[in-house]
From TrEMBL:
Keywords: Cell membrane, Membrane, Transmembrane, Transmembrane helix. It comes from the Bacteria. It is a multi-pass membrane protein. The keyword Transmembrane helix applies. This is UPF0056 inner membrane protein. Its main location: membrane. One of its GO terms (cellular component) is plasma membrane.
Length: 211
């Protein structure tokens, strides 16, 4: 039970920030001119690219913080703030600047392969997802915990791939209103999680402040 609870604490923030359902319109728009077979390949490749990028950050996150001489507590506060801003955009059902810009999406439509850029990075493995991974792994020296994070990344990537494969059906079932409602609910949960990150970081920076 404790393992499941701990795993969900990792899985839920990653699932919310990657936001497979909210990415469906972007996926459909970017792969609109592709054949069904190539669209499937794009779904597979985008999920694999995102999983590899995020897994790499799960493994080397502490080294990056150490290289830039950033304390774990400071990063938790900054990371929580970034995630809170993203959550507020989700609550308002606004397009997220951390995903990709309209001009980048338009440029990508003219490329042969959109699976790596912008689908894999930055739509799936964007700054928000990378920040979430770094916040989760910061301060954890135990490889077992990092392995849990990587497993959660793989699970979210698998779900994202399945969502993309059935994106046409999902879009028809949910519609724009249903998609926005789902994104808003996920944004609300992410806002609470981000405040917890900031509170923990502030508590470490200023002991006794939040007691």
């Amino acid at each position: 039970m404790e393992f499941i609870k701990g795993f969900l604490h990792i899985f839920i923030p990653l699932f919310i920030i990657i936001d497979p359902i909210g990415c469906v319109p972007l996926f459909l728009g970017l792969t609109n001119d592709l054949s069904p077979e190539r669209r499937k390949k794009s779904a597979y490749k985008a999920a694999i690219v995102a999983a590899l990028v995020l897994s790499a950050f799960a493994l080397i996150g502490d080294q990056l913080l150490f290289f830039f001489n950033i304390s774990v507590a400071s990063f938790r506060v900054a990371g929580g703030l970034i995630l809170l801003l993203i959550a507020l955009q989700m609550i308002q059902a606004q397009p997220r600047a951390t995903k990709s810009r309209p001009e980048e999406e338009e440029e990508s439509r003219h490329k042969e392969d959109v699976a790596i850029v912008p689908l894999g990075v930055p739509i799936l493995a964007g700054p928000g997802a990378i920040t979430t991974v770094l916040v989760l792994t910061a301060g954890h020296k135990d490889f077992g915990f990092r392995l849990e994070v990587i497993i959660a990344i793989l699970a979210v990537s698998l779900i994202t791939c399945l969502v993309f494969l059935y994106s046409t059906r999902i879009a028809k079932i949910l519609g724009r209103t249903g998609t926005n409602l789902f994104v808003r609910i996920m944004g609300l949960i992410l806002a609470v999680i981000s405040v917890e990150y900031m509170a923990k970081g502030l508590g470490e920076l200023f002991p006794g402040l939040l007691k």
